[in-house]
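New to this. Please check this fold:
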Amino acid sequence: MNEEELEYVYKQIVDIVVKTIPVNWIKVYLYGEVVEGSQTAYFYFLPEENDDQPIYSHEITELFEVSEHEYRERWHQLVD
């Protein structure tokens, strides 16, 4: 993968993560793994109003008014 392709992939990842977080935030820690036959991704973010307590991405639907369907769609986009 050349540098331009890599930049494009990084931009897509950033766009999806930003759209997934429903509040203002100051920092994101992203984990992604791709191995033959398996892939996963998740992240933690620090919200502006409580920057000492990171929020796990898979808890967004429990903590905010985000539907499971909407979250799952974005998570699948991120993993893809």
The chain has one domain: 3-79. The chain has a mean pLDDT of 94. The domain at 3-79 is CATH 3.30.500.20 (Murine Class I Major Histocompatibility Complex, H2-DB; Chain A, domain 1).
